[in-house]
Structure formats: C-alpha cells, structure tokens
Amino acid sequence: MRTRTSTRAIAAGGFAAAALMFASSPAFAGTDASVYTTNHAGSGAFHTSGSVERIQVCDEKAGDGLYPVVHLKYGGKEHFSPNIGDGPDCENFKINIAEGTSVKVRIYLSRPGSDTHKYHASSWHSAKA
User: N- or C-end of the chain: fewer Cβ atoms within 10 A?
Assistant: First the structure.
C-alpha cells in the first residue's frame, strides 16, 4: 500500500511538472530568416521577438553606388526597408506583423533614384512572425 501511494505521488508530481513546463513556454515561437545578395554585397535579416519584429539591413560593400533593400511579403502585404544609403553601417527597423503570420523575405541591391532595378536579388526565404 505504501508503495502504491508513493507511486501515485510521484506520478502526480510528474504531471504537475509537465503542466508547468508547457504553461510557462510561449504559445508560439516565430522563425527568423537571414538573406544575402547573390554577390554578397548586401545582407539582411528578419528577426522575431514577441509582438514586434525587426529588420536589419547591412551594406557589405559600401561605396559601390548600390544599397541593399530587404523585401517582405506577408498576409497579402509587401514591405520594403528604407534606403540606408551606400555606407558601411547596418540599420535596424521595427515592424509589427501579427504573430504566427508566414513571411517571405528576400534582399536585393538598388541604385539611388531607381526603384525599378533590382540587382543581385536573393531567392525568397520563409520565416514566421
């Protein structure tokens, strides 16, 4: 009888620990994406962190007359990162996308004053907000 009671107590404690583990974990975890232009002159990333996502854009080859643009597609919408110029720094931008939304991410290079030309575009990468 004593063994049976101890077994029940251990089993109940195990279930309580499992319930606590699942209750304390986040309901959903997004997935990030990192992208590079085909000539590695630009890099970008889409990072998820709770309710606000972040886009990072870096010009890996400053002074070449081109600047990188991160392009997102999600929920029937499109978003383009702002022109960061042709300098050596990275820029970060926040964007709010509904949690669990599928996001397609790519990067390309553009010339100032020309929104129609996309140079060295990466393929589309999948992420989730």
Answer: N
pTM above 0.70, yes or no: yes
pLDDT in tens, 66-121: 999 999 999 999 999 999 989 998 999 999 999 999 999 999 999 887 766 789 99
106 phi and psi, to 5 degrees? Answer: -145, 170
Cα(27)–Cα(117) distance, integer angstroms: 41
Residues in Cβ contact with 57 at an 8 Å cutoff, skipping those fewer than 6 apart: 42, 43, 44, 68, 69, 70, 81, 84, 90, 91, 92, 93, 107
Report the distance separating Cα 17 and Cα 100, nearest Å: 27
One-letter-per-residue 3-state SS of the chain: CHHHHHHHHHHHHHHHHHHHHHHHCCCCCCECEEEECCCCCEEEEEEEECCEEEEEEEECCCCCCCEEEEEEEECCEEEECCCCCCCCCEEEEEECCCCCCEEEEEEEEEECCEEEEEECCCCCEEEEC
